[in-house]
Amino acid sequence: MRMIKAAALFAIGIGMGSTLFASEPKYKLFWKETFRGREINDRYWSKIPRGGSDWNRHMSDESSLYEVKRGKLVLRGKVNNGISPQDTARYITGGVYTKDKQTLTYGKVEVKAKLQAAQGAWPAIWLLPAEGKWPNAGEIDIMERLNRDAFAYQTVHSYYTYVLKETENPPHGGKGAINPEGYNVYAVEILPDSLVFSINGNHTFTYPRVQTDKKGQYPFGTPFYLLVDMQIEGSWVGKANPKDYPVEMKIDWVKFYSLDEGE
What we know:
The chain is mainly β. The chain has helices spanning 6-10, 159-163; strands at 27-33, 46-47, 66-69, 72-79, 91-93, 95-97, 103-104, 107-115, 124-129, 139-144, 151-157, 173-177, 183-190, 194-199, 202-208, 224-229, 247-259.
């Protein structure tokens, strides 16, 4: 969730349309969140605290940024015009994660979401490691959408890509078309030899494990947790237009699948 060179993000990965497995991997659903209650289920989710990075510098626990309604989780971004008077941030955003509550090692993550557009809006669905420091332990961006784009970015970060700047061997990101006005399903498969990304079932790119003497090319194979958050402004997305706000993202469901033991 850092500033990324656009050229690297537009690259199409190696192995289009298939994984590096000899046969198609098989998965078993082990967790499904459908937001059927009236509140966020704190057995699995926590509100993301504020931090000093672009992506989390507007995070807030303000109640109006969060809603569970009609089987959907709604996360909002707002201009802080007196909504949270004790907060000096110009914008406030809502975000949740499964840190210390639900993780996945090898398997598949799918999230069905609808993204409202706005200048400076930067909603994201992504994975971070339960242990280890960034970027060495890796990051998997399942979806990032900027402003009013009709496509989403999907990206891999690690010591190899971020510190060593090895973003083209192999390409560490791709993008895929979305329905800007409706729901889309964003997914990643985490396998021992590759990460396989898709949008609405359409393969976008594959990030493979490759042979290299350089450090940290494929730090995947440890537990990762999920983050879903509305974000506003930053060095990548640019400035927001206050007239476009409030803005929201709706999450219909989340699914975690484990890799079948036979694989």
